Amino acid sequence: MIEIDGRNLALPDIVAVADGEGVVLAPEAVARLAASQESAVATSLNRPVYGRSTGVGANRGVTLSKNDGDDTHGLQLLRSHAVDSGRPLDRRTVRAMLVVRLSQLAAGASGINPAIAVALAELINSDVVPEIREFGGIGTADLQALSGTALTMLGEREPLGGGGVRRFVESWATADALPFISSSALTIAQAVLAHEELSRLLDNAQSVAALSFVAMSGNVEALSPAVAAAADTPAVAKAANTFYELVQGSGQPARIQDPYCLRTLPQIFGSQIEELESLGTLLCRLVTAGNENPLVHGSLSDGSNDVAHHGLFQMTNLARRADALQLAIGAACATHLRRIDLLCDPKYTGLHPFLAEDGTGQSGVMMLEYVAAAAVGRIRANTQPASLQTVVLSLGAEEDASFASLAAAQLQSTVRALATVTGVELVCAARALRLQGRRAEEFASHKLRSMMTAGYGLPSDVTDRDLRGDVEQANRIVLATH
User: By CB neighbour count within 10 A (0-12 exposed, 13-18 middle, 19+ buried), where does 283 fall?
Assistant: First the structure.
């Protein structure tokens, strides 16, 4: 069980809940929620509070009638905001969203009834997954996704996969409607899942690139400690050291100076890892940040309780960090494709063209270049910065949006495409090394030996045949933990 205390939540723990792990709400988090609710109630008696005593969006100037009862307006808000469209999101993504929102609520800045958070934990542990669709959020809170979650908890909407409705809460007070949905939990969850997959993928991609380096007898001078010491950033220096260790035992270089796709490996991977780490730092903050609007703060006990109406829900930094990572990955694609191309070239491997069985005109891995190029096309399309998007909505009350939701979805798409590119390179590099008679035992690096052994587990038949299965197996390898 993953404990949710509103103060600490590791990104791998979010992935664990996405994959089916249960949660437990820490007692101190429940106490914090209760104090926040009491503070919000007291504050609303002395001043208008957005969404609690007023309408939302362009209706922010409308004072809610006290004759409506506790539940009427809140239910109307949830029902009206629950609309989304497109394909349903997968269970892992939605479960990740649920635990992110639970963690944010546990931070104690929303003023929500603690019973809602307890019910949300029960929803997660019951593995009842709301059906959330892809189009709705624009990077200013995932209102549609969380409203749909609330309706699922109320038993008004059937969960993903059917099976009938189940009621987790009996009613939803007006005071608890906006505090539940005012969050970008879905966008953050998508970014977390993409970040965790990219962490494994880029680590494995370094080993795959090292295999290509060995297969083409690269010059290790470009990765030497002297080069690392002169690097412009710590991430590039670390990447140089990583590659230097990986390729020890690779033999004599074939050239005094290699093509960029081998010579600039430290810059290629260092820049990607640097941006990945920056995104990870931001996500670690967001999953426990009470970026609620309005933000409940202060203490009822000393009379400092109040709320702050703000715009922290605008996920500008998340969109920008995701865009920067996309650009780093997109910029590296030219060298990924070039290594695949050179692995097919006899001048660089000493083998037959396209790593074919012989020189009688067989195609070998020729078509894998096309597969990788198609995937690179998707990655490059995804590098169009989402943070440059904007829109004016709600009668002009909301005149911009971060579109972090789009950036996170693009990042997930890029993971799938990059896995294909890396998988194709693994198929080609492993085939080249096998045909050259290289053995894993030659190399000191455990990581390189592990990836080489995994690559040698791919089919060894080099006659012209259907390679779809090879690529699918390679994709699984490069996304796995080694």
Answer: buried
